[in-house]
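Sync notes, pocket subgroup
Present: LS, DG
LS reminded everyone that the earlier model was apo-only. Rerun requested with flavin-adenine dinucleotide included. Inputs:
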Amino acid sequence: MNPTCKKRLGAIRLATMKVVAQEEIAPAIFELVLEGEMVEAMRAGQFLHLRVPDDAHLLRRPISISSIDKVKKQCHLIYRIEGAGTAIFSTLSQGDTLDVMGPQGNGFDLSDLDEQSQVLLVGGGIGVPPLLEVAKELHERGVKVVTVLGFATKNAVILETELAQYGQVFVTTDDGSYGIKGNVSVVIKDLDNQFDAVYSCGAPGMMKYINQTFYDHPRAYLSLESRMACGMGACYACVLKVPESETVSQRVCEDGPVFRTGTVVL
Ligand SMILES: Cc1cc2nc3c(=O)[nH]c(=O)nc-3n(C[C@H](O)[C@H](O)[C@H](O)COP(=O)(O)OP(=O)(O)OC[C@H]3O[C@@H](n4cnc5c(N)ncnc54)[C@H](O)[C@@H]3O)c2cc1C
Ligand code: FES
């Protein structure tokens, strides 16, 4: 085995976590509560690489950590059924266990923000969950949090009430069935742009928009998705190009999933 792989494998954290609860919170969208010692190490914006609990699916599935309770040693994950793996996760119930690798990835940089600071959170669809822990932690520090959420339609709206505990929330829907009609840009273009930091997670179109709008902002962050295999930096299945470089690339699983705007090609 080459020395880089050995180093990576040495750093892998694998654990069995207990399912505390699972609930369908919107059509085909589930909230899973897991408990275990691994919670101690979790940070906002990281993800867990979950083994599908059957013998047919060899690749783990990455799911973001939505909220963290270090006292109870519990974390919440919110996921949508996309295919076989997530469909199997949805059958788990209290008392079952899951084989978890993590916490993976870099997470959001929440440093140097205080009661003088104002931040913007932008989430789209099933990209909203990792922003909940960001909002919670920054609100606890007195940071002013403004959140803009975009969904396809009313049925898909999640976490509006939870995020509203931590600051003002705007909701948009593409079809106008709830909140403001249109996408998040309809709201963002009218906001005072003096945010100390911007945290975002959503579909590729939304991430491109945030990347362009806040391209030169020193603290604007995108949490990105990509198809993953190993989930720990070894296989290069998840690479993104870096602007103006033919040779340098970034791995979403290991160098991300959170990147500063302007630092990767979308
Ligand atoms: C860092 C990261 C964090 C994520 N966090 C969440 C989360 O919090 N909640 C959530 O619902 N989903 C999340 N995803 C996406 C989730 O991993 C996929 O939906 C899941 O792996 C699909 O597995 P499956 O077996 O159900 O579907 P598959 O049968 O593997 O695929 C079904 C469909 O999903 C698409 N898909 C599969 N994997 C991905 C992927 N990694 N990214 C985008 N599309 C994919 C496929 O193209 C296909 O169309 C995240 C992905 C990444 C990379
Ligand atoms: S999934 Fe293997 S390097 Fe990212």
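DG: Residues 123 and 149 are 5 Å apart (CA to CA).
LS: Confidence is low (pLDDT under 50) at residues 1-8.
Action: DG to write up.
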